[in-house]
Amino acid sequence: MRLAPVPRRILGTTFALGIVAFSLAGRASAAGAASAADALSSVGNAEGPQFYTGAVVNVTDTVDGDVYAAGQSVTISGDVTGDVIAAAQTITITGTVDGSVRLAAQNVTISGDVTRSGTVFAADIAVTPTGSFGDDVVGSAATAAISGDIGRDLLLSVDRLAISGAVGGDVSYTSDNEALIDDGAVTGSVERIEPAQAPEPSPGAVIGGWFLGLLYALVALSLITLLAGLLIPRWLHQVTDHLLPSPWKALLVGFIASITVPAALVFLLVTIVGAPLALAGILI
């Protein structure tokens, strides 16, 4: 079992899943305005790559190709001859996937058969006794419960790991906690890697970082002030004329603005509709 390529593979898959999540979730948000998008199920057999978005996605029929899905809940209960790439809050696979799965979610449950490999990033991963993978499983999770079969190797970054199923190859996991593994569950070797601890910065490094940050802030503010004086001198003089007669009032207004403006920008970002306005406000 080679461990060196795994971080690059994990980063690449995470980047790909992030692109799928943002692109498909954006389509799901636009479609969510209509009630028909609240629940989406596949109708009839389909050939070629299939794209599904909606609050609830349920692929119940046979798909002769790859499946790309994004939503709040994604369920694959039909048979897929290709790969499944999905991003959601909850992902459940009860059907058969002849290819591989690439999943990102809060909760992932595998109760069906995946012929090839799986890359899974979730808070909770569960492979039930009826679930299985033909090849390797790579991923990251807070908790992982493996009760089904894994054909080859299992490589996880996890907080708590429990294996009661069968792993045909090696198990390598990065965790602060010892895994709960049933006797005879792993055919190959079991390796636990302790996470690397970040070194504590020295007092000199802390003071040096603070000084560099202060120097950077002074230089940046000086350049901004210089540019403001060159580009908008009249407006800058008006601000100064208001500041000098009542500096404490200006200080109070600036203090309140420093608290309320970031909160308002975050609120606009959350509303999605106001995101462009929030980005413009951050730039200003």
What does this entry look like structurally?
- This protein has 284 residues and is of the alpha/beta class.
- It has two domains: 6-193, no CATH class; 203-283, no CATH class.
- The protein is 35% helix and 34% strand.
- Strands 1, 3, 5, 6, 8, 10, 12, 14, 16, 17 and 18 form an eleven-stranded parallel β-sheet that branches.
- α4 packs antiparallel against α5 (275-283).
- The relative contact order is 0.06.
Properties at a glance:
284 residues; alpha/beta; eleven-stranded parallel sheet; five-stranded parallel sheet; 5 helices; disordered N terminus
Q: What string, H for helix and E for strand, traces the elements in order?
A: HEEEEEEEEEEEEEEEEEEHHHH
The gyration radius over C-alpha positions equals 26 Å
- Per DSSP E runs of 2 or more residues, the count of β-strands stands at 18
Structural class: alpha/beta
What's the helix and strand layout?
Layout: H1 6-31, E1 39-41, E2 46-47, E3 50-59, E4 63-64, E5 67-76, E6 84-93, E7 96-97, E8 101-110, E9 113-114, E10 118-127, E11 132-133, E12 137-146, E13 149-150, E14 154-163, E15 166-167, E16 171-174, E17 180-181, E18 190-193, H2 203-231, H3 233-243, H4 247-270, H5 275-283
Parallel strand pairs: 1-3, 2-4, 3-5, 5-6, 6-8, 7-9, 8-10, 9-11, 10-12, 11-13, 12-14, 13-15, 14-16, 14-17, 16-18
Helix pairs in contact: 4-5
